[in-house]
Amino acid sequence: MSFEEDVAITRKHIHQIELPVSPERAFEILRTPTAIRAWWRASRAIVIAEEGGVWAAAWGEDEDDPDYATAALIRVLDSPRRLLLANVKYYARSDRPSFGGETTIDFIIERRPNGSLLRVVQDGFPADSSADEFYAACEMGWQKTFENIHQFLAGKAAAL
Fold first, then answer.
1. Quick count: other Cβ atoms within 10 Å of Cβ 2?
2. How far apart are CA 85 and CA 69, in angstroms?
3. Based on CB atoms within 10 Å of each CB, which residue in 3, 11, 19, 73 is the most buried?
4. Based on the number of CB atoms within 10 Å of its own CB, is 13 exposed (0-12), middle (13-18) or buried (19 or more)?
5. What is d(CA 103, CA 85) in angstroms, rounded to the nearest whole number?
6. DSSP string covering 6-50, please?
7. Is the pTM of the predicted complex or chain greater than 0.90?
8. All residues at 6 or more sequence positions from 91 whose CB lies less than 8 Å from its CB, including other chains
9. CA 151 to CA 7: how far, in whole Å?
10. What would the CATH number be for the domain defined by 11-159?
């Protein structure tokens, strides 16, 4: 087997949004469970905010049997510039992703004159059709998530 045959080809999502808050505040909403629950509309969130720590969220009324859950290891925690989540695991009671491999979510924050830029890169989706449905769902999910982040920050403007 050649090197090229051994390397899995993946695809990724890249989304970004300008935020009217400092990079420090933008980073804070990515690592604070109460903020994550608000902008991600999660029922629960747990973050052990350190490299090697855990970043997890769940949705649904039943804590013992959630509708959806996401958990990841924090590979990079470089406040206020970068939060890299690795070994991301997804659970859906009704339909689990049908592909393996490692997925990462990389949050990158850049200072801007009027606030900050938040970029997310979600990588590791297989290029073949095994991930098409999940890939499309994530595309829509990030669009909605960025709308939620914008709304969350607008609602919290007085507290900033």
1. 6
2. 15
3. 19
4. middle
5. 9
6. HSPPEEEEEEEEEESS-HHHHHHHHH-HHHHHHHHT-SEEEE--S
7. no
8. 66, 68, 69, 70
9. 40
10. 3.30.530.20
